[in-house]
Amino acid sequence: MAHRSMPGELLREALQQEKPLQVAGVIHAYAAMLAQEAGFRALYLSGAGVANASFGLPDLGITTQNDVVEEVRRIGGAVQLPLLVDADTGFGAAFNIARTVRELIRAGAAGMHIEDQIAMKRCGHRPNKELVGKSEMVDRIKSSVDARYEESFVIMARTDALAEEGMEATIERAQAYVEAGADMIFLEAAASLEQYRTFIAEVDAPVLANMTEFGRTPLFTTSELAEAGIRLALYPLSAFRAMNAAALQVYLAIRKEGTQASVLNLMQTREQLYRILGYYEYENKLDQLFSSDGGSGD
Ligand SMILES: C[C@](O)(C(=O)O)[C@H](CC(=O)O)C(=O)O
Ligand SMILES: [Mg+2]
Question: Which residues bind Mg(2+) (predicted)?
Answer without folding.
Answer: 86, 88
